[in-house]
Task: inverse folding
């Protein structure tokens, strides 16, 4: 038999101000198509080696595939909204627990990389620290509000996870 040994490392520190700011609305930029995640199969607590430089004024940067479609953020997952349908990449990403919760509770989900235009028509980010956050600008261009499906999921997430008003906008 093969015995597997797991090592868990945890640190505690305040949630970074950029993460707290992005909960109210994220200003995101796309990374050059040549930028890839240094360690594509790991989520790390220290982004020093894995997180590309994010320009001043941006809260998050998005990895894109060779076609320019969006895969994920450096620390977040990404959803576009088309009516009542959520669009999110499935392949070549690190799936998150909040992403999984959204997929489980959404009315309809299509798993494919969303386009830049789809994100500008209404979108949001998810992560365990960001929670559910609307994207307000993408590459400096204003995005439409994500609308009712997003607000409904955000309220349900807050209630389901017993988040108080001070923690979730």
Result:
């Amino acid at each position: 038999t093969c015995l597997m040994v797991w090592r868990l490392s945890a640190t505690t520190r305040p949630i970074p101000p950029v993460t707290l700011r992005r909960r109210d609305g994220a200003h995101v930029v796309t990374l050059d198509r040549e930028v890839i995640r240094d360690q594509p199969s790991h989520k790390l607590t220290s982004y020093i080696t894995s997180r590309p430089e994010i320009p001043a004024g941006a809260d998050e940067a998005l990895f894109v595939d060779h076609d320019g479609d969006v895969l994920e953020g450096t620390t977040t997952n990404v959803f576009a909204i088309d009516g009542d349908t959520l669009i999110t990449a499935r392949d070549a990403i690190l799936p998150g627990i909040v992403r999984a919760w959204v997929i489980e509770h959404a009315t309809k989900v299509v798993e494919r990389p969303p386009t830049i235009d789809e994100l500008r028509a209404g979108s949001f980010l998810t992560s365990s620290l960001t929670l559910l956050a609307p994207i307000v600008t993408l590459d400096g261009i204003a995005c439409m509000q994500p609308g009712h499906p997003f607000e409904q999921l955000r309220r349900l997430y807050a209630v389901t996870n017993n988040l108080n008003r001070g923690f979730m906008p």
